[in-house]
């Protein structure tokens, strides 16, 4: 149950912080054309960069905290830690730096791979949707990286597909955890 609360809080906080930072961006922030990280670059264009960077940090920490709350070890936990480290790096090293690029790869690949590794947390339809979201996120990220040089695709949309897959999974998993009886979870039965 704690994992559901943590993931729900982390996802909603991240989306709210992103919306507030985007609204303050000057002259205008485009969810279609701008990178998510543009919101975290300090300067006149992003007066609330500090808030966005707090959002990156908190989102990563809460993704990992949810994994800790489930008491899961192995690949899921390791990949959640990879996502958390990536988000922390993104928060402290801004767009354009090599460390930021490494952080983005860790956060996006780690988060989407964690979805795949954690697809069996609950089972049933959640399992299938998790696999779909994880694959969609990883394929979106591959497309995003491939298109960085040509710039023919709407880069903000393609990048967000690889980021929001993680956010959607957290919300879906949180809702499932918070609305199901704990005894119905496959991972509970295996531990007993």
Number of strands: 0
User: What is the H/E string?
Assistant: HHHHHHH
Binned, the helix content reads: over 70%
Q: What is the SS-derived class?
A: mainly alpha
Largest sheet: none
Strand content: under 5%
Rg on CA atoms, Å: 17 Å
List the domain count as a whole number.
1
Q: In whole angstroms, how far apart are the ends? A: 17 Å
Number of helices: 7
Overall pLDDT metric: 92
Q: What is the molecular shape?
A: globular
- pLDDT below 50 for ≥5 consecutive residues: which ranges? 188-192
Can you describe what's shown?
The chain has one domain (2-186). Helix content is 71%, strand content 0%. The chain has helices spanning 2-24, 49-69, 75-92, 98-117, 124-147, 155-179, 186-191. The chain is globular and about 50 Å long. Mean pLDDT is 92; it is low at 188-192.
Brief sketch in words of this structure:
The chain is mainly α and 192 residues long. 71% of the residues lie in helices and 0% in strands. The longest helix has 25 residues, at 155-179.
Give the helices and strands, then pairings.
Elements: H1 2-24, H2 49-69, H3 75-92, H4 98-117, H5 124-147, H6 155-179, H7 186-191
Core attributes:
disordered C terminus, mainly alpha, 0% strand, 192 residues, 7 helices, globular
């Amino acid at each position: 149950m704690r994992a559901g609360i943590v993931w729900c809080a982390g996802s909603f906080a991240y989306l709210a912080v992103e919306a507030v930072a985007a609204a303050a961006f000057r002259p205008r922030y485009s969810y279609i054309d701008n990178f998510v990280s543009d919101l975290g670059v300090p300067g006149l264009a992003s007066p609330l960069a500090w808030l966005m960077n707090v959002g990156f940090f908190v989102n990563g920490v809460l993704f990992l905290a949810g994994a800790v709350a489930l008491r899961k070890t192995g690949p899921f936990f390791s990949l959640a830690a990879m996502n958390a480290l990536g988000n922390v790096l993104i928060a402290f090293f801004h767009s354009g730096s090599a460390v930021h690029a490494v952080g983005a790869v860790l956060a996006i690949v780690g988060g989407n791979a964690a979805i795949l590794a954690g697809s069996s947390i609950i089972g049933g339809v959640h399992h299938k949707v998790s696999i779909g979201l994880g694959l969609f996120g990883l394929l979106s990220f591959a497309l995003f990286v491939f298109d960085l040089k040509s710039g023919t695709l709407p880069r903000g949309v393609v990048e967000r597909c690889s980021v929001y897959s993680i956010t959607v999974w957290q919300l879906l998993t949180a809702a499932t955890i918070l609305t199901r009886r704990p005894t119905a979870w496959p991972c509970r039965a295996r531990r007993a």
